[in-house]
Write a structure and sequence with these properties.
Strand content: 15-25%
Order of helices and strands: EHEHHEHEHEHEHEHEHEEHEEEH
CATH class of the largest domain: Alpha Beta
Shape: globular
Number of helices: 11
Structural class: alpha/beta
CATH architecture of the largest domain: 2-Layer Sandwich
Helix content: 25-40%
Number of domains: 2
């Protein structure tokens, strides 16, 4: 049994970590932190956890925090993580970081999109936590950079195609739609009920979303050459879920049979990737609450383009579920431990 600390337990990703971990056979939450809710039980902040996660949230100095757990999930904002993680590592702890602070390997790129980095020496050590691509590296890591939600949905959809040279990288267009939980729990005008109900809108259009360099970094690594994407996120009036529709021109010689073989070879044995049959398309309601990524595609014969469709729960496979999947790999547990939830429906 491993002792777990959740740093930043009062956000949506913290709540999902608690929901998942209370059912984990090899892990127990021994400390949960929150500055805003210090002194209050998790189950008071999130009533759905009543009787399952009644641990009182605390606001502790790092030295005391390190005495309370073996592995930490840092579910805190950018900048906060980079200041905290080095102390946890120095104390011999393992860290799964859910911020963006350690996802980008190039310091200049990080500082262009975020802010100055105070722990840049760790960028080369952190392992990008997408198990379907980096399982072996994750297994030996003490610092895992948990991927963003949009990147997870897009990278999983395209990785088999780019690795095989099946698509032309310069033609990639990713059109993604997300529920409002992706914006976090803090009150914002743009995610108030009256601002999103009965509506649907794009945001951060034209290379303005911070997930863009993360997507390009990982797609470039898979392709073995620089990849640029046109990425447009949209906000849906739902609480959770991402659906990405990704377009690219097929390289000569690739048909349905060859594409099927690529996806089956890459994901046929993956526990959390479900390849849908021809003509069956993914929908957010069929992955809700689960760690699954559903993938389907069609080929447009008139244009020679492939349309790849993926869906995930943005705060499970797109955040906390994937973080627990990474913990399982780091600790040598069964990769599916604690993650066997069947999607909620209806």
């Amino acid at each position: 049994m491993i002792n777990i600390g959740i740093v930043g337990a009062s956000g949506y990703t913290g709540a999902e970590l608690a929901r998942i971990l209370v059912n984990h056979p090899e892990a127990r939450i021994t400390v949960a932190t929150s500055r805003q809710y210090a002194g209050r039980p998790l189950s008071e902040i999130f009533p759905h956890l009543r009787g399952r996660a009644d641990l009182v949230c605390e606001n502790l100095p790092v030295a005391e925090l390190c005495e309370r757990a073996d592995l930490f999930f840092t579910a805190v904002p950018h900048k906060t993580a980079m200041d905290l993680v080095p102390d946890l590592l120095t104390a011999g702890k393992k860290v799964i970081d859910l911020s963006a602070d350690f996802r980008l390997r190039d310091l200049a790129v990080y500082e262009e999109w975020y802010q100055p980095h105070s722990s840049s020496h760790l960028l080369s050590e952190a392992i990008y936590g997408l198990p379907e691509l980096y399982r072996d590296q994750i297994a030996g890591s003490r610092l895992v950079a948990n991927p963003g939600c949009y990147p997870t949905s897009i990278i999983l959809g395209l990785a088999p195609l780019l690795a095989a040279g099946a698509i032309m990288p310069e033609t990639i267009i990713a059109d993604s739609k997300s529920g409002t939980s992706g914006a976090g729990r803090a009150a914002q005008t743009g995610t108030l009920f009256c601002e999103v109900h009965d509506g649907f809108r794009p945001y951060k259009v034209g290379r303005a979303h911070r997930h863009t360099p993360e997507i390009e970094q990982e797609l470039s690594a898979v392709a073995g050459k620089q990849v640029k994407v046109t990425f447009t996120p949209h906000l849906l009036p739902i609480s959770r879920g991402i659906l990405s529709t990704i377009y690219a021109s097929l390289a000569p010689g690739f048909d349905r049979k060859r594409i099927d073989e690529l996806y089956r070879a890459k994901y046929g044995d993956e526990p959390f990737v479900r390849l849908l049959a021809d003509g069956v398309f993914p929908a957010t309601q069929y992955v809700r609450g689960s760690n699954y990524c559903d993938i389907s595609y069609k080929i447009d014969p008139a244009t020679g383009r492939i349309i790849v469709m993926t869906t995930i729960d943005n705060i499970v496979k797109g955040a906390s579920g994937q973080a627990v999947q990474n913990m399982n790999i780091v600790c040598g547990f069964a990769e599916t431990a604690g993650l066997g939830v069947v999607p909620f429906f209806p």
